[in-house]
Amino acid sequence: MTRFNTSTVSAAEIEALTRQITGPVLAPGDDRYDAERAGFQTARRHRPDLVVGATGPADVRAAVTYAGSRGLAVAVQATGHASAAVAAEGGVLITTSRMSAVRMDAETRTAWVAAGTRWDQVIREAQPAGLAPLSGSAPHLGAVSYTLGGGLALLSRGYGYAADHVRRLEVVTADGRLRHVAHDSEPDLFWALRGGRDNFGVVTAMEIELFPVTTLYGGALVFPAGKAAEVFGAYLRWAATMPETMNSSVALISLPDVPAIPEPLRGRHTVHVRIACATGDPETGERLVAPLRAIGAISDTVGELAYAEAGSIYNDPVVPGAFEADTAMLGELDAAAVRAVLDLAGPHEPVPHIVELRHLGGRLAHPPAVDNAVGNRDARYLFNVVSRLERADLAEIRPAHARVIEAVAPWSTGGRFLNFMNGANGAARVPSAYDAAAYRRLTGIKAIYDPENIFRSNHNIPPVEGRTGSR
Ligand SMILES: Cc1cc2nc3c(=O)[nH]c(=O)nc-3n(C[C@H](O)[C@H](O)[C@H](O)COP(=O)(O)OP(=O)(O)OC[C@H]3O[C@@H](n4cnc5c(N)ncnc54)[C@H](O)[C@@H]3O)c2cc1C
């Protein structure tokens, strides 16, 4: 049990709030406090004055109203995959895991998704109707937070960002009001939330579009690290010729020496090419992947795959852990870019990190039918560097990541993707997630909907000075 000073909130206030809220209201020292604030990312945990386990919009309204009246910051957590990004110190943390529900409408190809729902639940509900959401590499992520942060999906090159396909949002703003926002109702707030994530309120539900996808041609080709230069070079030439239906990434991964990893790969430094091809036709997929197969993989799981099994493509960890990451958005890449990355990420490096390039472009490069705040649509690759803290020290990892990010700087667009911003990306980097004019507009909308900046335990967009107001 954690005990730390919580003089900000009195016992009487906790009691009063408990009477208004159906879910638990927990302070440090309470037996259930640690479990309620725990998330997937264990490196930096939220340490709020109060955790409110919301069961629905009414609980969220009560918690936000209370925090607003006391000038306390409000943070939100669904699954805690991004809690290392900015961990709340004090204030009120609203957890949404009890708000997990999906309402499907197969006819309009839409789903109404509550705040704490994970993608795997949406996929389970949508697949019997032959439909799929724009979920990402890991099906256990929170659907709402992922979408509000942009949402780079397995099939995004063909469809765009998940945020591009939100129809309506239900949100509790800083004044405690539950608002129904859409293109024709509070359009500024609707624009800002889709990309501005947790800066404008607590979204209690979203209505999203679904797509007719049941199978993919997908999986991973794994090569020995000795072939890294050849694979990265061939991958870049190959990716440049691919249609929008082909989604892929390449990553250098040092696999741990543990029984969960199959024998030919266990403990080896490897290169993974991940494939998610949306043709629904294995012959086309096979033809498109053939040039990469010709390099000679030591493991090849690429084949016809049910969308419900698409989490196996990246095989992202499901067990909570501690990690550090950094990110950059890149333009077109050449052989010099590959050399720059491999020089710093090979088996000889003391910090075992994953470096990854996700192929962008296609529909991601186009503005959506209803414009939103998601920026950096000119980028061609998303670059990530990730290290598990169990396998190296933070004091070693931070400078190692900084060196890798610096090495790709000549190819950087200067942008970053909000969903992959981590602790190392301080508040000063938030504007890089947006185009300059969009960032200015966001600060103006913030001044209207959250003038006191109660939603500040996040990658914060501060309200523009001198322009506050209420709606
Ligand atoms: C293994 C792994 C794989 C990933 N793969 C992808 C990927 O393929 N594509 C991609 O785009 N991203 C990916 N991400 C990043 C991921 O989308 C973000 O970390 C996302 O924010 C996680 O959402 P969560 O609900 O799971 O986490 P949480 O930590 O619970 O929430 C994340 C953020 O969203 C905010 N938030 C949560 N709920 C709400 C709400 N109801 N209203 C407003 N704000 C809210 C929180 O304030 C928090 O800052 C991945 C991350 C991990 C760790």
From TrEMBL:
<dbReference type="InterPro" id="IPR006094">
    <property type="entry name" value="Oxid_FAD_bind_N"/>
</dbReference>
<dbReference type="GO" id="GO:0016491">
    <property type="term" value="F:oxidoreductase activity"/>
</dbReference>
<comment type="similarity">
    <text>Belongs to the oxygen-dependent FAD-linked oxidoreductase family.</text>
</comment>
<dbReference type="GO" id="GO:0071949">
    <property type="term" value="F:FAD binding"/>
</dbReference>
<dbReference type="InterPro" id="IPR016166">
    <property type="entry name" value="FAD-bd_PCMH"/>
</dbReference>
<dbReference type="InterPro" id="IPR006093">
    <property type="entry name" value="Oxy_OxRdtase_FAD_BS"/>
</dbReference>
<protein>
    <submittedName>
        <fullName>FAD-binding oxidoreductase</fullName>
    </submittedName>
</protein>
<keyword id="KW-0285">Flavoprotein</keyword>
<dbReference type="InterPro" id="IPR036318">
    <property type="entry name" value="FAD-bd_PCMH-like_sf"/>
</dbReference>
<dbReference type="InterPro" id="IPR050416">
    <property type="entry name" value="FAD-linked_Oxidoreductase"/>
</dbReference>
<dbReference type="InterPro" id="IPR012951">
    <property type="entry name" value="BBE"/>
</dbReference>
<dbReference type="Pfam" id="PF01565">
    <property type="entry name" value="FAD_binding_4"/>
</dbReference>
<dbReference type="InterPro" id="IPR016169">
    <property type="entry name" value="FAD-bd_PCMH_sub2"/>
</dbReference>
<keyword id="KW-0560">Oxidoreductase</keyword>
<feature type="domain" description="FAD-binding PCMH-type">
    <location>
        <begin position="44"/>
        <end position="213"/>
    </location>
</feature>
<keyword id="KW-0274">FAD</keyword>
<dbReference type="Pfam" id="PF08031">
    <property type="entry name" value="BBE"/>
</dbReference>
<dbReference type="InterPro" id="IPR016167">
    <property type="entry name" value="FAD-bd_PCMH_sub1"/>
</dbReference>
